[in-house]
């Protein structure tokens, strides 16, 4: 018998759609243009992807969605609107997302969801990538801008500025921790 196990997909948030005006404000805050490749980590019904191509003219919009029913809705729309050359959707855990061509990442997850993705962003997001998050900040990162919109908050982060100072701090702390003790004043 040949048994194979797929790594279980982990839900980082339930489905709650961003209102259209919030989607527009997120894309505007990230100054999205026709040079961008946008990736929505948990794309729901695909509204960010479709607005990114129709109103902002992006090169490509990529979505990852773990719920099969939502993935099917997005796929049907991609096919009916004949935009498969510009909108790509995967029924996959966004932790597996390929960020190599991505210039803008959109998030509407949870604080713990963002925490799970943070190390991936620090390792894999290209310098200059803008990350916009609806309502949930990225713990320990410094936002370049925070915009309040009705009852919503949008955070903009720029890679690597958002986390560089934190990396320097933890590196310096590590160096201080491993320094040998010298009892007669300065030890370096
Ligand atoms: C709050 S909704 C946001 C939907 C859309 N991005 C928006 O702003 O309208 C979060 C979505 O992420 C999906 N999701 C949760 N965990 C995921 C994961 N690990 N990989 C891909 N999608 C995920 C959920 O099924 C849900 O559709």
Can you describe what's shown?
The protein is α/β, with parallel strands linked by helices. It has a single domain, classed as Rossmann fold (3-Layer(aba) Sandwich). The chain has 5 helices and 7 strands. Strands 3-2-1-4-5-7-6 form a 7-stranded mixed beta sheet. Strand 6 (145-149) and strand 7 (152-158) form a beta hairpin. Helix 1 (20-29) crosses helix 2. The N and C termini lie far apart (62 Å). Residues 1-6 and 179-188 have low confidence and may be disordered.
Gap from first CA to last CA? 62 Å
Number of DSSP helices? 5
Contiguous low-pLDDT stretches (5 residues minimum) are 1-6, 179-188
Strand order of the largest sheet: 3-2-1-4-5-7-6
Shape designation: globular
Mean pLDDT: 90
* Associated small molecules: S-adenosylmethionine
Query: Main beta sheet: strand number and arrangement?
Result: 7 strands, mixed
How many separate structural domains? 1
Radius of gyration: 19 Å
CATH fold name: Rossmann fold
- CATH homologous superfamily, by name? Vaccinia Virus protein VP39
Q: Please name the CATH architecture.
A: 3-Layer(aba) Sandwich
Helix- and strand-based class? alpha/beta
Our estimate of the beta-strand percent is: 15-25%
Question: Looking at the chains present, what oligomeric state does this protein adopt?
Answer: single chain
H/E series: HEHEHEEHEEEH
Fraction of residues in helix: 25-40%
Give the CATH level 1 class.
Answer: Alpha Beta
């Amino acid at each position: 018998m040949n048994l194979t196990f797929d790594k279980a997909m982990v839900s980082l948030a339930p489905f709650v759609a961003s209102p259209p005006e919030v989607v527009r404000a997120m894309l505007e805050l990230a100054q999205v243009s026709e040079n961008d490749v946008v990736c929505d980590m948990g794309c729901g019904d695909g509204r960010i992807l479709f607005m990114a191509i129709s109103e902002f003219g992006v090169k490509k919009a990529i979505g990852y969605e773990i719920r099969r029913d939502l993935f099917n809705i997005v796929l049907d729309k991609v096919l009916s609107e004949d935009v498969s050359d510009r909108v790509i959707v995967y029924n996959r855990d966004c932790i597996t997302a390929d960020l190599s061509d991505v210039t803008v990442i959109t998030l509407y997850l949870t604080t713990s969801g963002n925490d799970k993705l943070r190390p991936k962003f620090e390792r894999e997001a290209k310098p200059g990538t803008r990350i916009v998050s609806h309502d949930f900040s990225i713990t320990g990162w410094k936002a370049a801008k925070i915009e309040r919109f009705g009852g919503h908050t949008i955070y903009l982060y720029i890679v690597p500025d958002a986390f560089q100072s934190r990396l320097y701090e933890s590196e310096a702390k590590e160096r201080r921790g491993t320094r040998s003790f010298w009892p007669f004043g300065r030890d370096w």
